[in-house]
Structures are given as C-alpha cells and as structure tokens.
Design a protein that fits this description.
384 residues; HSP40/DNAj peptide-binding domain; four-stranded mixed beta sheet; 26% strand; binds zinc ion
Length: 384
C-alpha cells in the first residue's frame, strides 16, 4: 500500500490545512511542466495527486487509516494519470491554479448516502500529423475508444420504466450505526451500509444495455483543430471529451498529444525549419539562383558568387508556425558544395588550366587558425 503521508511529507495527525499546504508545495516542485514530462516525473506527480485525493477527503482518509487503500483497484476511483496539467498552450500559473482548484473542490467531506455518479477518467490519445499540418494548422478527425453514457438508460443505471428502491437496511441513509464496547466505554461508529454499499438505494432492475453501470464502452469520433505551430509532445486538452462517468457522472477530459512526422527535406528547429541544399562547385564559385520546393511552394535561393560550404541562406517567414502567434520562423538553407568526382578528360584539362591561371597548381600549406571544421573542437581542447 502506498504511504500517502510520506508522499506528501506530512505527519499522520496532519490537519486538513497541513495536507493542502504540503500538496501545493509538492505539486509545484514536481509538476511535469516544470521538471519535464518523463515517465518518472509523471508517475511522481500522479502519486502526489493520489495522496492528496485520499488525505484531503475525510471519508477516504478514514478508510486509509484503517488499512484500506481507497484508490486500490476495485476500491474506488483510481487517480487519473493526466489530470492537472493541461498541455503547453497556456501559462503555467493558470494551469496550476485551475488544477489546484479542481483538486481541492472534490475534497469536501460529506455525510449521508454516497453517489454512484462520479466523473470519468481523463484519457490521452496520440495523433500523428504531417509537418505541413503543424506549420499551417489543420482539421483532423480523431476516433478513439472510450466510455459513453448508456443510451438505454441515459446514465440512470435502471431498466426503462424502473427506478432505484430505497435500501431497507439503512432506510436510505447509506450508513449503519454500530455500538462498539471498549475499555473506554461504548463508542458509536458509522459504517457504510453493506446491503447498498453506502448508496442508500438499490438498483433492483439494472439496465440491460450497460449492466447497471450507466455507461458503455464504445467508439467516438471528434473533429480536432490542429493548432498552428504545434510540435511533437504538445498536448491539447478537450474538456468533456474523455470517458463518461459511471451512473451519469460528468465526462472527463481528453488530451490529444501530437507527434509530427519526419519530413524528407525539412527538420524543425524551434520556430525555424532547416534544410540542406547540395550545389555544384561551379555554382558556388560563380553564384546562382536555385529554385527549391518549400512548404509554401517554389521559392528562389540566391547563392552569392564565392559561396562557401556550410553557408546558410535564410528565407524569412517560411519556417515553422508559432503557437498562438501569427508570425512564422525562417527557413534556413545550408549550402552543401559538392566537388565533382566524375570529371572526363576535357573537364580535367579545364580545371587544370584554371589552377594554373590561379597559381594553385601547387597549393601552399598553411593551417587555418580559425573557421575550419575542427576549430570548435580545437577551442574545446585548448579551453578557449
Ligand atoms: Zn444503461
Ligand atoms: Zn443500505
């Protein structure tokens, strides 16, 4: 069983305010938007949320103190794995406040019968998109498996024309009083009613479509707007598009996580796109205008006379989109000057004449002090 007190770092007799303060601190310190979305970080954050879910709810905390983990499978609602962080589209402060309010909202203690209805669980769907879709935005149809509110009973759990009947054992109160004799005298304790599991009523005629659950497994399809500038790993939250809750409970949220497919020509670098353009040695020496196919259609790359290998030509505004902005980054084209390897006799003769003309037939040896391919390595080695 998880030690929820240790996870939040509070004593077993911590007050509700202590628990709240410890949770606020721990979830800020371990929020995946801050420490990174690694599986470990998300797991830690999940544990913190589970600990808070249990310790902030007097009912669950009492159960837990008696040795029952209310979040264990079959023991109640499991902690939701994606709750809390709503992706990278809003400021962190807003997300945190929203998350905290949501988490604290469910924490009020209650007496009387429990409700069958509960919020469904959030879910995550991964969607792969083309680079072009992330640059220009797109509409995508996304189909996924989820829980849907039962159409046979509309979430009431009861067969058509029937209704839950009041539990005769507890008269609908959901709890039974018990007197326990101990050394200190007789004490009165309240236990959930066993006959109705604390609900106060019994579904005598369960809906046949959902076996009395109020929801069924199914598929649904939604239209998703792919935001301009979205990148791999970005998440979009669609509220109310996750699992429908049991017994007519509210639907949870759906998170869409995007993966941008590799493009054969362009690599994304933040807001920019990078490409490598091979050009012949002669074009580099003489200059040229080369038409390339960009995501926006054909565009001209101007190669200045004397262009060097590795030189970058920037095409402004033809890069990747920026989230929540109208502007785009640049397309940076790196020139890859190719030296011919298949010269025929007459071409070899031409080059030889050129070398003679330029007194380059016997190149002099002196090392370049800066700018060579090894210069960065050299700086590293000499500590410059
Ligand atoms: Zn039903
Ligand atoms: Zn009962």
């Amino acid at each position: 069983m998880n030690d929820y007190y240790a996870i939040l770092g509070v004593a077993r007799n911590a007050s509700a305010d202590d628990v709240k303060a410890a949770y606020r601190k721990a979830s800020r310190a371990h929020h995946p938007d801050i420490v990174g979305h690694t599986p470990q970080a998300e797991d830690k954050f999940k544990q913190i949320n589970a600990a808070f879910e249990v310790l902030s709810d007097p009912r669950k905390r009492e159960l837990y103190d008696r040795g029952v983990d209310p979040l264990a499978p079959g023991g109640g609602q499991s902690a939701n794995p994606f709750g809390g962080f709503s992706g990278s589209f809003a400021g962190f402060g807003d997300i945190f406040e929203a998350m905290f309010t949501a988490a604290a909202g469910g924490a009020a203690g209650q007496a009387g019968p429990a409700s069958r209805a509960a919020r469904g669980r959030d879910q995550l769907e991964r969607v792969t998109i083309e680079l072009k879709d992330s640059v220009f935005g797109a509409h995508r149809e996304v189909s996924y498996a989820t829980f849907l509110t039962c159409s046979g009973c509309h979430g009431s759990c009861c067969a058509p024309g029937t209704a839950p009947v009041v539990c005769s054992a507890c008269q609908g109160r959901g709890v039974r009083e018990r007197l326990v004799r101990s050394l200190l005298g007789t004490m009165r304790t309240m236990d959930p009613c066993r006959q109705c599991q604390g609900y106060g009523n019994i579904i005598a005629n369960p809906c046949p479509d959902c076996a009395g659950q109020g929801r069924v497994r199914g598929h649904t399809t939604i239209q998703v707007d792919v935001p301009v500038g979205v990148d791999t790993g970005n998440r979009l939250r669609l509220s109310g598009k996750g699992e429908a809750g049991p017994a007519g409970g509210p639907s949870a949220d759906l998170y869409i996580e995007f993966k941008v497919k590799r493009h054969p020509d362009f690599i994304r670098d933040g807001d920019d796109l990078l490409a490598t353009l091979p050009i012949p040695m002669t074009a580099a020496a003489l200059g040229a205008s080369i038409v390339i196919e960009t995501l926006d259609g054909p565009r001209e790359v101007g190669v200045r006379p004397g262009a060097q290998p590795g030189q970058v030509v920037t095409l402004e505004g033809l890069g990747a989109g920026r989230l929540n902005q109208k502007t785009r980054g640049d397309l940076r084209v790196q020139l890859d000057v190719r030296v011919p390897t298949d010269l025929d006799d007459s071409q070899r003769e031409l080059l030889r004449r050129l070398a003679l003309e330029r007194h380059e037939e016997r190149p002099e040896a002196h090392f370049a002090s800066t700018g060579g391919v090894f210069s960065r390595l050299k700086d590293k080695l000499t500590g410059k």
